[in-house]
Prior knowledge:
Blueprint: E1 2-12, H1 15-21, H2 25-28, E2 31-46, H3 51-54, E3 57-64, E4 67-79, E5 82-92, H4 105-113, E6 120-135, E7 141-153, E8 156-169, H5 173-183, E9 189-190, H6 195-204, H7 224-241, H8 243-248, H9 252-271, H10 278-316, H11 322-344, H12 347-361, H13 381-400, H14 408-428, H15 434-471, H16 480-510
Antiparallel strand pairs: 1-5, 1-8, 1-9, 2-3, 2-6, 3-4, 4-5, 6-7, 7-8
Helix pairs in contact: 5-12, 7-9, 7-12, 9-10, 9-14, 10-11, 10-16, 13-14, 14-15, 15-16
Amino acid sequence: MSVNREIELKGAIRSEYLDRVETLPAIERRTVGRTKTRKLVTVYFDTPNYALRRLGLSLRVRKVGRAYVQCVKQAHKKLGGILVRTEWEGPVPSQAPAISVIENKALRRRIKRVGIEHLQPVFRTDVLRRSRTLKFEDGSTASIDIDVGDILAGDASEPIGEFELELETGAPERIFELASEIGKTIPFRLAAPSKASRGYALLTGDGPRPRKYVKVKLAKDATVEQVLTELVQNCLDHLQANEAATLATDDTEGVHQMRVALRRLRAALRLFKSTLPEDQYGWGAREAKWLTGELSEARAWDVFSDEFLAPVARLYGEECGFHALTAAVEQARRRSRRRARDAIGTERYTEFLLHLSAWLSGQAWRDQPVTERTTRLLDPIGAHCVQLLQKRDRSVRRRGRDIANLSGAALHELRLAVKKLRYAVDFFESLYSKKQVKAYRRHLAGLQDGLGYLNDVAAADTLLRELALSGGGQTPPAWVHAGGLTVGWHRHAAIAAKERLVETMTGFLRTEPFWHDG
């Protein structure tokens, strides 16, 4: 069996547009040879408890004409928005898997350990594929496959309508550039899940669910450039991992996690701003801020409904207009959720992902004059990490020393400073021992939670004013008394929260920064 490194980008596209993709000038001018059309029937195998899936492997046998081809794939990493996988592929005599033909001994042992005798068909895909070979101006080559068909798992099925751009030789950024050209004519969404992932989800009935970010484990000898790449990639993965839950469910955590991913992305870019070309930093920060704004309204109403209104409404029941307020807030919540979903469906969002992915894979920040400042990208992260943490730590300490007497505006600025420090700690904590970081993180998390609550209390009045204006009536809405009770209840709670915040800041100021011992 041959071993290949598969570098592939998928675009999910509506059926009415599929026939237009291969006739686009961007495709036709790069096409080499004729279009090939094939009927592909692919059966995926696993054990009854999906042991291969847990190992990060997919095993399939595909019928192509009269021949059978077996393929084992293992997800490796992301390169921008492209999934990079290692695949072992080769002919087999029938539809049944043949583990003995896998030449890689380690892989063969891993599959045998799950019990070859337990392998069974779990789902299949029936696809009509149209393929073209592409050659780019710089000599890079790729293929485009346009797939139409179905995933079938027992009695359940799901349609397939997508194009795949797979790099064969050359620069990965060519794929992003081509996808961007396609997107200017035909709307599509980057499709993160593979056919195998979708098949397993269909088989198990698992719907999309929100995902928290996975902590980055940095190598102590990593360069600034390597850390920049890993952090931005981590944020991009986190963002895309929550798209489906935001689009397909009303789980409030999906929007929240997308906003967390965007805030972390902006924080990562800000950390390395001095080493990046000004126009590149400006574009990334601007687009991330735009998308954050499109999602923020949904998050604000989710917090108000679940954390502000719900506990007070339980105290009063149907009295004082709480039923009317709950109904009005739910309407606002639905409107804001539509706004968030609409933003994810825009060309601007897809272009943001493509542009950021191309920037990562092509290391575009290297396209700038060599100066003392830009050569820091090649330095070890160690000394720079300490400087970055110290700068943000000093800002929090300076702003927070007199926290009991700070104005609302000053508390807001302190909250932003705490966030910047919290993200920097999240990014770099793997370079230090858990024991060193633990106490510092605990105080910092307490500051963020307390300041966040005070900020939400301050924002509640604004939300209710906007809600009243959206009704369009001249008379006070039926829920105005309930709104006043809700805000008043939390303003009273904010007094105790402010006192706790003073104690938390005192503890933080007494805590020695963990990097002093690093």
